[in-house]
Structures are given as C-alpha cells and as structure tokens.
Amino acid sequence: MTQAVPQPALQSGPPPFARMRTRDFDRVYRDPARRRRSARFQVIARRNALGQTRWGISVKVRLGNAVVRNRVKRRLREILRRAALPKGWDVVVQPHSAEVARADFARLTRELGDLLEKTLVGEGEPPSRYDVRG
48: closest CA among 18, 13, 68? Predict the structure, then answer.
C-alpha cells in the first residue's frame, strides 16, 4: 500500500514579477518611453496601467549557440528576479554580447541594476530602490 505524499501549500496572491507576452514586447518596441544602453545591455521600458511590473528578455541568435543563449537568459532571469523594480512598467532587457554568459555575476548584477535605475527612476521617484546586489 502506498502512502500519499503531502503536497506543499500553494501561495496565494499575485506573483512578485510577471513575464511579458509577445504582444507586450511588440507594444514596448513600438512605443518605448525610455531606452538606455550600457556596455553589455540595452533596457527598453514603457509604463503600463497594471500596477505590476512585467519584464522580458530578448536574446538574439547572433549571440551564440543555444547553450550560450540559454545561459544568458538564465543569468538575466535571476538578476531580474532579485531586483526590486518599481510597479507599473514593462521592461525588456537585451544583452549585447555573449560575454554575459561568462562574466562575473556580481559585476553583471551591478551593471544591470545601475542601468535599470537610470532607466526607470523618473521625476519624483526615489532612487536606489533597484539594489539587486542583496
């Protein structure tokens, strides 16, 4: 006789982040409110009326083979998951080199965190809310 394995309780409430769908990417590309670049990344952002920030990652084929592209996406997802992004934005992150797959994670986190802060902090919004180093 087999015993039932207890299942972990499901958490209720909205997720701390949400990923974007194709139509959301199209909307951000078509009408971006803010666009900033750094040595390794480009961030494109647009306000939304949802009260929730959604993010997406766009990795071009020219960055490398599938292994490299997937590693880049995993690393960026982790950085964005840790980031305390302000509410009400659609954000697309585009890496510009395959170096993102091999670079020091702390440096990537700092660079992307600084870029997100420059992109998303506007008039009247408090700075330094985007510390992703913790």
Answer: 18
What are the chain's domains? 18-120 (3.30.230.10)
Q: Which positions ≥6 away from 117 have C-beta within 8 Å?
A: 127, 128, 129, 130
Buried b (16+ CB within 10 A) or exposed e, 52-87: bbbbbbbbeeebbeeeebebbbebbeebbeebebbe
42 alpha-carbon distance from chain centroid: 11
SS3 55: strand
How many CB atoms neighbour CB 33 within 10 A?
14
Q: Per residue in 17-35, pLDDT tens?
A: 566 778 888 888 888 788 8
